């Protein structure tokens, strides 16, 4: 089967934006490809893999990268086999899925709200999941699994609440951001209330959970996250094309035949679920969903939601941050949420300044 | 039976009723212009015709089918709309934006056919933006930007095209420019155009069919030469005027009466100022 790859003809006006190519098959199928975005995707995948190998190799018992790869391919000795497969691989895989989920969720919400500040952790879904988890820890004294379930329930309830509050003949970007930020502020008050109400053991557990950490994550966290990702990620990516149209405004999207409210509600539910599950698995890791989609955009230089690139950037960011948290501070290992918090906080400041300069806030 | 019509529709935003029991037919192959004072319901009527607003009673028919029960993409292949305001996504080029007009003809595995490419090029050429393909939309002037949005609507290749106040925010030269473009599309491509316009004189000059709306009711409709009279303008807009022949085109030209001549008739209007 011959596949033709062609750029737009040079004569006259170009019908495809610069750098965009179309791959066509004789059967009449065609796919738009942006080489720069594809290259960015490959690069981010490589960074993720490299950081993953480094992360798996480092710890109390260091394993050189080549042996990590050998062990992953099934050629390691028994000790390495145990350390890699039972201890460190699940943690790295959880990091990939959590980072990817946060990056993708952030890309969806920033696109729906048409605002780089419209990320799930700033507009209430992250804090909602935290309130759910803390309610289980502090009031119900539940175990880890119950805490995760609480986080998911909290995230979904908050999502429904914000959706209802922001509803006025459809949900619109700026209102969603404002109501989300207000809700986040109230939820933060609830979080503080729950922590002060807790006894010492519960309060310690709660604080640790809230920092966001990948320590001790194992296959038990990995499988539910994987199943959810296998269902939700393709669903969200499939809605990526109508989401691109939505960025031009509801009216323009309607005119092009996008089912606006359906697209928006499916994407919001899927993204809230994904972010809540990620939060359930690793705690509220700060700022990944805020910064990953924006960094991805700058890398691909492509207009539109940049969903896949956002997810890959989230995974790469979280792995690099986790490696940094466990290695860059000497003997003392930090939870990954501290690193993403510091980096993301600086980024948020920069973003606010840039947005102000552009006259958008 | 015309392709697009509304059958005794009641149009309302939540509780606020804009129009009741309104029926209208858009003549095929016409350049129909809807005019009326602010808040008379002309944009609302256009929103209903383009299925963005669902009538609380009655129905809008497209090719004999109720438009709201038709698949969204199928409607979008027949009926295009240029909304009053659209947002150009950050960092998007002209070619990329125009290409988005092909969305209703595309699918997950049919994202960019040779036909898409040809039509996008033709649309950019027809609107005179072919040279701007690689420019960013943010950098363009208001007039150029409106041409790009029209090019996107053209790329949708719909026999019917609705335009909601396409000349708002443009200076006079660009207003005429956009209206010339519409007239050209109507004449050379045989498309049915429906536009909401503010300027009665523009409407009279360019429309082949005029619909005058006031308080959610159609007061008059027909060719501008028959519809635009001093009585009608006073009835619809509450403005005393003369209607003379446009020295350029011979179409009706509305000349508002001098302030002194209008004063006794409009004490309320004076108080408002």
Automatic annotation (TrEMBL), chain A:
Keyword list (alphabetical) reads:
Cell membrane, Membrane, Transmembrane, Transmembrane helix, Transport
Q: Which InterPro entries does the UniProt record give?
A: ABC_BtuC-like, ABC_transptr_permease_BtuC
Q: What is this protein called?
A: Iron chelate uptake ABC transporter family permease subunit
User: Where would you find this protein in the cell?
Assistant: Cell membrane
Q: What Pfam families does the annotation carry?
A: FecCD
Q: Which Gene3D superfamilies match?
A: ABC transporter involved in vitamin B12 uptake, BtuC (1.10.3470.10)
Query: Which SUPFAM superfamilies does this chain map to?
Result: ABC transporter involved in vitamin B12 uptake, BtuC
The family annotation for this protein states: Belongs to the binding-protein-dependent transport system permease family. FecCD subfamily.
Organism, as annotated: Streptomyces pyxinae
Regions that span the bilayer: 37-57, 92-110, 122-140, 146-166, 173-195, 219-239, 266-287, 334-353
The way it spans or sits in the membrane comes to: Multi-pass membrane protein
UniProtKB/TrEMBL annotation, chain B:
Citing just one GO molecular function, the answer is: ATP binding
Protein's membrane topology:
Peripheral membrane protein
List, for all copies, the residue spans of the domain called ABC transporter.
4-240
UniProt-listed InterPro entries: AAA+_ATPase, ABC_transporter-like_ATP-bd, ABC_transporter-like_CS, P-loop_NTPase, Siderophore_ABC-ATPase
Arranged from A to Z, the UniProt key words for this protein are: ATP-binding, Cell membrane, Ion transport, Iron, Iron transport, Membrane, Nucleotide-binding, Transport
Q: What is its main location?
A: membrane
UniProt xrefs under Gene3D superfamilies: P-loop containing nucleotide triphosphate hydrolases
Lineage: superkingdom:
Bacteria
Report the subcellular localization: Cell membrane
The identity of this protein, by name, is: ABC transporter ATP-binding protein
Organism annotation: Streptomyces pyxinae
């Amino acid at each position: 089967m011959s596949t033709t790859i062609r750029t737009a003809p040079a004569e006259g006006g170009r019908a495809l934006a610069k750098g965009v190519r179309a791959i066509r098959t004789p059967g009449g199928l065609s796919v738009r490809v942006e080489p720069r975005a594809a290259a960015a995707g490959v690069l981010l995948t490589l960074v993720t893999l490299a950081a993953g190998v480094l992360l798996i190799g480092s710890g109390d018992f260091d394993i050189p990268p080549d042996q990590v790869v050998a062990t992953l391919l099934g050629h390691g000795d028994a000790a390495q086999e145990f350390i890699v497969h039972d201890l460190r691989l699940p943690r790295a895989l959880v990091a990939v899925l959590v980072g990817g989920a946060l990056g993708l969720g952030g890309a969806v919400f920033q696109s729906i709200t048409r605002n780089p500040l419209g990320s799930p952790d700033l507009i209430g879904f992250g804090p909602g999941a935290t309130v759910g988890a803390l309610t289980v820890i502090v009031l119900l004294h539940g175990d880890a699994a119950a805490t995760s379930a609480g986080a998911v329930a909290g995230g979904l309830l908050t999502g429904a609440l914000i959706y209802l509050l922001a509803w006025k003949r459809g949900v619109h970007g700026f209102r969603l951001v404002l109501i989300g930020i207000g809700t986040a502020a109230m939820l933060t008050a609830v979080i503080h209330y729950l922590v002060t109400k807790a006894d010492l053991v519960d309060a310690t557990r709660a604080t640790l959970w809230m920092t966001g950490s990948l320590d001790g994550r194992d296959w038990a966290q990995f499988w539910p996250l994987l199943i959810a990702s296998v269902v939700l990620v393709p669903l969200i990516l499939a809605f990526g094309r109508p989401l691109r149209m939505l960025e031009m405004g509801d009216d323009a999207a309607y005119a092009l035949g996008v089912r606006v409210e359906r697209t928006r509600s499916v994407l919001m539910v899927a993204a809230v679920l994904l972010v809540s599950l990620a939060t359930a698995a690793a705690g509220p890791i700060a700022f990944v969903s805020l910064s990953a989609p924006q960094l991805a955009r700058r890398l691909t230089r492509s207009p539109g939601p940049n969903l896949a690139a956002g997810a890959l950037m989230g995974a790469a960011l979280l792995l690099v941050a986790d490696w940094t948290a466990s290695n860059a501070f000497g003997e003392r290992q930090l939870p990954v949420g501290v690193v993403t918090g510091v980096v993301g906080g600086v980024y948020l400041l920069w973003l606010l300044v840039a947005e102000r300069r552009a006259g958008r806030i | 039976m015309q392709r697009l019509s509304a059958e005794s529709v009641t149009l309302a935003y939540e509780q606020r009723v804009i129009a009741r029991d309104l029926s209208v037919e858009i003549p095929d192959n016409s350049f129909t212009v809807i005019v009326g004072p602010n808040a008379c319901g002309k944009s609302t009527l256009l929103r209903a015709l383009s299925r963005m607003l669902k009538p609380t009673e009655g129905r809008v028919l497209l090719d004999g089918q109720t438009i709201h029960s038709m698949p969204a993409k199928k409607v979008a292949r027949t009926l295009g709309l240029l909304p009053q305001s659209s947002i150009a996504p950050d960092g998007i080029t002209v070619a990329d934006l125009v290409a988005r007009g092909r969305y209703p003809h595309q699918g997950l595995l049919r994202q960019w056919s040779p036909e898409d490419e040809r039509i996008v090029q033709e649309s950019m050429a027809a609107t005179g933006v072919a040279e701007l393909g690689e420019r960013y939309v943010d950098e363009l002037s208001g007039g150029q930007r409106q041409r790009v949005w029209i090019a996107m609507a053209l790329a949708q290749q719909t026999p019917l095209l609705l335009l909601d106040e396409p000349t708002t925010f443009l200076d006079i030269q660009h207003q005429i420019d956009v209206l010339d473009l519409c007239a050209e599309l109507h004449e050379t491509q045989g498309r049915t155009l429906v536009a909401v316009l503010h300027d009665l004189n523009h409407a009279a000059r360019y429309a082949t069919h005029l619909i005058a709306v006031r308080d959610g009711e159609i007061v008059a409709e027909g060719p501008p030469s028959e519809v635009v009279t001093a009585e009608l303008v006073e009835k619809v807009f509450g403005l005393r005027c003369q209607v003379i022949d446009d020295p350029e085109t011979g179409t009706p030209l509305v000349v508002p009466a001098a302030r002194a001549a209008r004063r006794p008739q409009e004490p309320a209007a004076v108080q408002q100022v």
